[in-house]
Amino acid sequence: MTEHHPDTERRELEAADWFARLSRTPIETEELTRFQRWSRDPDNLAAYNDIEDISRAVRGLRDDPVMRAAAHHALAQPPERARRNFRGAWWAWGAGLAFAAVVSGAVLVLRPGVSDTYSTRVGEISSLRLDDGSQVRLNTDSTLRVRFTNGQRRVELLRGEAYFEVAHDTARPFVVAAGSAQVRAIGTAFDVRRAGDKVRIVLAEGRVRVTDRTTSRKDGWALNPGQGLVLSKAAGAPEPTTVDVAAATSWRTGTLTFHNVTLAAVVDELNRYSNTKIVLEASAPRELVVSGAFQAGDTAEFTSAASLLYGLTARKLPGGEVALSAPAAPGPRT
């Protein structure tokens, strides 16, 4: 018989609670910040990853006839018989999640041919579970349109960024359109970001094929895990490149990770998550190379770090923005 340590039980319950919170929509940046603090403990993060693994596994069971029958049987039981004590029983929580996945898959149904549109405000991150079992994390200030038919699962990213975990369905390809670009997948995980005519695709798992109707490359590009592709009018002849997937998708947990990125690019990215904008004055070293992890939407954290680490001066502007500048040169000694 396996004993359950009280700390382990508490950690698993907290992880389950965080998973439920992060699956809701919308998610405020402040809540993601609290999650990031909690997940800094390696044991907490491991417990949360275990739940994500269970969730990912059971999504594939939503059409299993045995699981459907079990779910309907459980729902048909009187409350006294259906109730179970899950405390201290990790396997039971997983089974309950499997039932929930089956039931929610039956409830969250888009009518064929009908579009649904989802949007987030600045600083919001939203989690969506589509009727096919696919999951979408919609980043700050983004808009997504979903349209499922019997032959295709089609999603259009109108602006912003989204991370897709696609349920496997060979009969209905999953297509994400972003401007002139299309990403075609069957069962995989990838990130798409659209800003104007620029589209960036980052593949985390599986395989996708990307096409762009404005190019002469009709067969498109096939991406492997760990690769990214940037399409734009100014991109010339784009080719897949190796990318840091963890850094590119770290926004999902409320943390923005940068490795050898210019100060100007870091500020542009941070400004996406807050209405309090950072302004680089003329004296600021825009090409300064920055590395680090910062909380999304926490302007004060970054400006403090920039002052301490790079000697920059931060000051509040009348409109509420925060200006960063190089420190004034010391005057001549007298």
Automatic annotation (TrEMBL):
Q: What residues form the membrane-spanning segments?
A: 90-110
List, alphabetically, the InterPro entries matched: FecR (IPR006860), FecR_N (IPR032623), Ferrdict_sens_TM (IPR012373)
Name all FecR protein domain ranges.
Answer: 116-209
Q: Taxonomically, which superkingdom?
A: Bacteria
Q: Does the keyword Mitochondrion apply?
A: no
Q: Which GO terms describe its molecular function?
A: sigma factor antagonist activity
- Keyword rRNA processing in the entry? The reply is no
Keywords, alphabetical: Membrane, Transmembrane, Transmembrane helix
List, for all copies, the residue spans of the domain called FecR N-terminal. 14-53
Q: Which PANTHER family match?
A: PERIPLASMIC SIGNAL SENSOR AND SIGMA FACTOR ACTIVATOR FECR-RELATED (PTHR30273), PROTEIN FECR (PTHR30273:SF2)
- Protein name (record): Iron dicitrate transport regulator FecR
